[in-house]
Design a protein that fits this description.
The chain is α/β, with parallel strands linked by helices and about 230 residues long. It has one domain: Spore Coat Polysaccharide Biosynthesis Protein SpsA, Chain A, CATH 3.90.550.10. The protein has eight helices and seven strands. Strands 3-2-1-4-6-5-7 form a seven-stranded mixed beta sheet, sandwiched between helices. A hairpin with a 5-residue loop joins strand 5 and strand 6. The chain starts with 5 loop residues before the first strand and ends in a 5-residue tail after the last helix. The mean pLDDT is about 90.
Length: about 230
């Protein structure tokens, strides 16, 4: 398989104050959330680049291209999406890369530095047999989606980010008679308890996401256990 056949796209936002990881505001300041997201992004780019024979790119809103190019340090190309929101971004991923001859395309979240490389490899391998591959999250969403072509109407903006996002995407794929493979379920980093879970994981294996591990070690020592578990007393 040639390089152009395997394209891994990171769905990202510019790490601006108040625009990233806002659901963590109960336990993090906006500045801290921005710092954490920068660590996520750096480690996620490194994760993507760990795969052999894969072209890596970032897809983002048009207004974020310059900021993300600086944040990425020129390590990967940054492509502006057409339209606003994640549904528009995912639609843009497959329209853009399939339209330029790429046939095995996988998109995943920019805040997934803890994702095993083997999961990404399995997603690409699945595209040799299936039209679509989806990585469900434990809360009903999805952290990854791949396809061999662009399928207009596959994504929708009315349920993105909700607990029914995965089931809706799966239903739409089946309506379009697309064959679907599921990768293993994984967890998002949206709440304080998720951060505690990630911190514990990276304490055991800090090399998986070194920048995030270093940041979380400092965070874990600075905040009460009740906050890490998602409770404020």
């Amino acid at each position: 398989m040639t390089l152009s056949n395997r394209t891994l796209v990171i769905m990202a936002k510019a790490p601006r104050l108040g625009s990233v990881k806002t659901r963590l505001a109960k336990s993090l300041s906006l500045q801290a959330a921005g710092e954490l997201y920068r660590c996520f992004l750096a480690d996620t780019i490194a994760l993507a680049q760990a795969l052999d024979g894969v072209e890596v790119a970032i897809m983002c809103p048009e207004t974020d291209v310059e900021d993300l190019a600086r944040a990425a340090g020129g390590a990967v190309g940054v492509v502006p999406q057409i339209g606003n929101g994640l549904a528009a971004g995912l639609t843009s991923v497959f329209a853009h890369f399939a339209g330029t001859g790429h046939s095995h395309i996988v998109a995943f979240n920019s805040d997934s530095p803890h994702l095993p490389v083997a999961v990404l490899e399995s997603a690409f391998n699945a595209l040799a047999k299936y039209d679509v591959v989806i990585g469900p999250t434990e809360d009903g969403g999805y952290y990854l989606v791949g396809a061999t072509a662009s399928h207009p109407g596959l994504f929708t903006g009315d349920v993105m980010g909700t607990t029914s996002a995965f089931e809706t995407l799966l239903a739409r794929a089946r309506e379009k008679r697309l064959s679907v493979h599921l990768t293993e379920p994984f967890y998002d980093i949206d709440e304080a308890a998720d951060l505690g879970r990630l911190a514990a994981e990276l304490e055991r294996t800090p090399g998986k996401a070194p920048k995030t591990a270093e940041w979380l070690l400092a965070w874990k020592s600075a905040v009460p256990q009740t906050v890490q578990n998602g409770r404020v007393e």
